User: Fold these one by one.
Assistant:
Number 1:
Amino acid sequence: MALDPYMFREVPLLELPALVAELGYEWIELSPREDFTPFFNHPRVDDGTVRRFKRALTEAGVGVSSVLPLYRWSGPDEDDRQAAVRYWKRAIQIAVELGVDTMNSEFNGNPRQAAVCERQFWRSMEELLPVFEREGIRLVLEPHPDDWEEDGKRAVDILRGINSPLVSFLYCAPHTFHQGNDCTGIMRKAGDLLTMVHVADSFDHTASSGLRYIVNPPGSQVTVHQHLDIGQGEVDFDEFFSGLESIGFDGIVTTCVFAWEERARESSAFMRDAIRDHLRRWAAPPTFESS
């Protein structure tokens, strides 16, 4: 189980591992932050800082489960796409220096230009997949709200089409209502392709005649969701965790609440305990083989 420390992004990088350990986590999913891998821009960290961060991790007894960069690698603008590929290559170098074997990200792009963005995505994969393979880095992707592909089952098919043992699927619980509202069906379709999950709650934006969230003027092209503590939204976490158990999931579970920066410590501690309770509840009983 890992913590996405985005709510703690103002904590100095070298102090972050000790804070994560204090919160009761042993792993960090290293999401974008301005002094490391900022959103949509080239990484800001140099090799010396990476080495110092690695020492701080060791001293705190904390590991990095994955590095999460987010770039416009499938956007319709070709200059943006080429820049994103360059940024990805540097981010991969950073992961290698940290000794991390997993990176996760999103499809990105624009659903209103889905055909163009899919072509851009495959072009970027043609350039980057050999780099991931050469470095032995696993790439785990998710369909994010307002990506060129938002549907969970179609996303699984796309990832199978990449046809690489290093590419797999991430199910993000707070995106449940954007990716088809069929948690069990998506997990079963993914099967062993599902190697990571993000855990947070969210409201069903389609419920109450689409009025769970209200935007003005009506009909505005917006995509709304939230990352809340378990129990504050409408995600069915019994279905979520039983679905993981039913497919024999054995991967990375990351808590990724973003809604409560004013109570980030309390939220992180609550999520740690809530996830552990759910995992214990749905864990399959041990099996024993006779000798």
Note: The chain has a mean pLDDT of 95.
Number 2:
Amino acid sequence: MSDATRCGFAAIIGAPNAGKSTLLNRLAGQKLAIVSPKPQTTRFRVLGIVPREGAWGRAQVLLVDTPGIFKPRRMLDRAMVKAAWTGAGDADITLFLVDAERGIADDVRTIAERLRETSKPCWLVLNKVDLIDPPKLLPLTAKLNAITPFAETFMISAEKGSGIERLLDALGPAMPEGPFLYPEDELTDQTDRKLAAEIVREQVFRQTHEEVPYGTTVETEVWEEKPDGSVVVRLAICVARDGQKAIIIGKGGARLKAIGAAARTELAKELDRPVHLFLTVLHRPNWDEERDRLRDLGLEPD
């Protein structure tokens, strides 16, 4: 095996609900990004650090999960879309993830047309290929390549794991030669405090409906290490509208308890330690239009 080392960024972009976060978690072999059936769950860049090796040497593939690209309305929306395109612009390779079952919808076409302007390699990754008839895949690939010629095409199921190894095998040697940017035992640059907030927000997305999850953000207020190895975590669920507060809490506090119980179980699993989780709900009007708060989320507003 060669002694050469490679390191580079591969940005995963696409329309909402294409499966970007599911793909990141599958490629990384661990949950790094939250997922839900609702679109626009991902709000900021999430980094996954994946080691690969072969006869060509060793590589550190830095996978960047980005927010879905859609028509923005709020400052938060605009910052999310900006983060997605910035991630693609900064990457060595762009992975354009397309929901094969959904096909070439208007938002998919718009993204593909913009990718035509980039000078960096773009790979087409068709996801959810297990959900459509195989004879439809090649025509879909041809239509997308007619919009933008892609350097490579991969057909995968991020949910079931099919096609993932082939994609990983291609990513390693495609990274530019250079030293590793992160310690070899790291999987992400995301802090445990941020992970805790995201896992709670994931449960808000899963257990509430309509506009409520989109008007909500979660902040970690207290992180206290205990002598027995456990951790006390206090988080605030902030809602944009006062009426959303009652919905999050639920009758007799039932929904807040359910959100907390599910999040506590998930966080203890991810941290591999006991977690004492405490949640409060705060009305914070227009948080999604506050520049400083968006910067705290890792976004750069216009």
Note: Residues 254-271 form the longest helix (18 residues).
Number 3:
Amino acid sequence: MSGVTISALIKKMNLELLTKEINTDKIKLYHPDVNRPALQLAGYYEHFDRERVQLIGVVEYTYMQRMTEEQRLENYEKLLSSEIPCIIFSTNNRPGETFLKIASKYKVPVMLSEKKTSPLMAEIIRWLNVELAPTISIHGVLVDVYGEGVLITGESGIGKSEAALELIKRGHRLVSDDVVEIRKVSDETLVGSAPDITRHFIELRGIGIIDVKTLFGVEAVKNTQAIDMVINLEDWDKDKEYDRLGLEDHYTEFLGNKIVCHNIPIRPGRNLAIIVESAAVNYRQKKMGYNAARELYNRVQQNLARRDDD
């Protein structure tokens, strides 16, 4: 795991760095949770999550204000010497000079936020969960189609980028072409994005690189998207049996999460963009409780039952 620098946290959460002499580019976070060190300020250090972001809220700040100078020196020394990555004061409660001096001594960055404690804590956890999530890179194209994240995979040169370009022209949004970085943000959710170097670009064989954002506008691109389904393109094989009803869902797996997958055979004359759109809409219908394949199956069964009765 590469970790997230304190500098990135400061920028994302709009924090004020109070210990400017400390280089926050070299200090990294490897744990997505946040700890409020109320018990530690009272002297209890068993089961202390020292690798987490430490957040001082109103309760902790008020307790600190009531300490004697001797207690402050003792408790601050113990907390700040315990190899914590950083400490944040919420609700614009500024720490005293004693705290800042000891923090500087142990190279612990101290930040200040105007936000209230609970919203700030939730925002930090949410962001770190995404940034520190297990990540893989795969070859494919990720497109937002009617709000559904469709990951198009297949052999090189089969037409993934061309399908994505046609979808963009039809009003959908590109997330990534060629390389898709997939993050597991929960046991149910995979989020896809593009590497910084290739973001908003598409490679078209015979033409070269095109900038989707410049050609089609900002409404044609998106930075991240939850992956809802996979469409795998493959060359048509006349001897292979393809699913024609769709009564049973098929799945593929990334980082331990199962995603609905459709294998689409490619042959001249098939409009891939319309197929992808139809698959996305059909998936939304299934999420809303309507299954077209099941409906057709029920109608056939009812028709056969009526014939038997006759």
Note: The longest strand covers residues 257-266.
Number 4:
Amino acid sequence: MKVAIVGAGIVGVAAAHALLDEGHEVLILDKEGPAFGPSRGNAGIIAHTDILPIASPGMLRKVPGFLLDPLGPLAIRLGYLPQMLPWLARFLLAARPAAYERSITGLVALQQLALPAWLARAERAGIAGFIHRRGALYAYRNARDTADLEALARRQRAAGIAVDMLAPQELRQMEPALKDRFAGASFHPDAAHISDPLALTMALFDTALARGATFEKAEVGNISQGERPALIGPAGWQRVVDRVVIAAGAWSKPLAAAMGDSVPLETERGYNVSFPGVTGLTSRPVGFKDDGFVMTPLESGLRIGGAVELGGLEAPPNHARTRALYDKATTLVDGLPAFDSGRLWMGFRPSLPDSLPVIGRASRNRNVLYAFGHGHYGMTQSTATAGLIADLVAEREPAIDLGHFSPQRF
């Protein structure tokens, strides 16, 4: 069977491997090239320990503040607000208690697949050296948060996630570069991070080509509705295949619409600064609860990033946000290099209101499959999603219930 994958980010490349495993002929298509989008600027954490959606009951009262603080952990560009209103309405609906719990159920199911799928793929692809299992920390400054984090830890343990609650002195012992400003931390001993997201994505892409996949740089503007879908591009470009996988991240929405599915996909504009050659400051990823950013020790250097800006695909980067992340980090971590020595990045994470991706079949053509909308978790959930796509192509029962991820759930 010939399968075309639209998108050469980490989700598309992982899907290529899962389909090659089953003997399919795989064509990867991308308008830019491999790892052009957020796959190259990812924080590098296999964050299978994260099981809470962004939209939560407690989040509702914070929405007005998002409009007032353009440099906060979650901000909305005022000029983009009218276009965001339908998405925000669904975000508020997803934050209702019953909807929130449904989202957690779906997120837990997918996250439980994530790390085992990554370890298996890395081993098979010969890239296991990219994955480091030194655990991850989630540090907090306000002692009043202890009870909430202990409650979260109980939920995580129920989902099979190992977690230890650390006192301030234990945290400092593990990561001496952290300043003495923390009330404690959650420690996930089984968590993993990637030595370099761009290098790993490119290695996975190269090994897919070595296994027989082909790549074309092409912009797909439409897909026909025949039993053998035709991918259609400018100037008469066309490719006819047996199955199509749409894994184009934040650019997937028009293709889904052409297939009859109105998916409320928006882009979380993520920011980071990387410091090439700065290694050894921390041993493992550290997330900072109160400040909305993470710090990851990549082999290429230290990366500080995070936060969410809702502002569409067209507006230029606002690196005052990156500077704000860095300034916060200097109050929490000793030994950071000067901001001007860093390399700035902004990327478009494909985001859905309930923090769950779209994984399933198109309404108008069951031979067109979706694998997009992973938000912060594209790197984390890519290989698990790839396995689910392989299940759908093979017409077998998926490993988990895909109802939570249905493109028709909206």
Note: The chain is about 30% helix and 25% strand.
